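anyone else get weird line breaks when pasting these?? whatever heres mine. first is seq + tokens for prot A
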Amino acid sequence: MRRRHLRGVMAIERQVYPRPWSANLFLSEMSDERTRVYLVARVDREIVGYAGMNCWSEEAHVTNIAVNPRWHRKKIGTRLLYELMRSAPQLGARAVSLEVRVSNLGAQQLYERFGFRPIGVRKNYYQEVGEDALMMWVDEVYTAEYGDKIGDIIDALPERVRP
């Protein structure tokens, strides 16, 4: 993600989150390309989604995945997660974690397809709406077997969404 994409990212951020990140927080997150990956998804020139991940030592953490509500159910989130998971081993990660709203069953199903499994709950994590977060984790993202698994996921997507 580049600075010029920030306006489109912030528009989506304000649509999908009750307490959106600030532009300065995004700029700070994007500043270290050695430990972070931030991506945008575009259809033609329109930014329709974005995703981010940071990595410390051998663990990466998905910080956000968001898609413009007009573009939900078009596999954009799947493609963004695929690109993050493909990047994780390049950052040195052996495992990846994330949090998801306990009510967001669609996202949980997506993460499960990528091998994530629940490992705990963070009570009232999303304080602005009083909702718990389900913590999820996937191991061995650096293996050829995992690469094959996510390759199969992306191969099943419609042609317009594939890499």
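and prot B, same format (seq, then tokens)
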Amino acid sequence: MGRPKLFDRTEVLERALDVFWEFGYHEASMRRLAAAMDINVATIFSEFGDKKGLYAHALENYETLKLPLFIGALERPGADLQTVLLNEARLLAVNTLGLFVMIRAKVAPEIVHDTVEGTIATLLSALETASVADTAPHDRSITPGIAGSTSANRKGLAP
């Protein structure tokens, strides 16, 4: 029978993810991870396999415990437009942070590109769904918001 674990798995995975966020995947050495997690390198290997396994478990832990805080309100019956948009904005913020992590971890560019496209598709779908559900008369086009932006003026998109 093995020794009982002397650490909280969720807590060490959160600490590991903090290191990955701060240093990126490649610069997050096993020694640095072990120090932040307050466990030894051998424990990381026995518990998570290797650094890639630790990274996967840390992301899974984040997805399981943190993402519901951002998108849970979307699943409630009768979620109104404001709730949907607020939660989509939070999801966008989380995805943006995730993209920074992916870039720092030197994830393949095509994966980052696919993630960006998926995020945009999700946001557009939520806006479309919210617009259809919202019966209040208003301009549902997103173009006026884009046309009035400073970046749109610089890119020649404004009228």
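btw re prot B: The domain at 8-65 is CATH 1.10.10.60 (Arc Repressor Mutant, subunit A). Residues 109-133 form the longest helix (25 residues).
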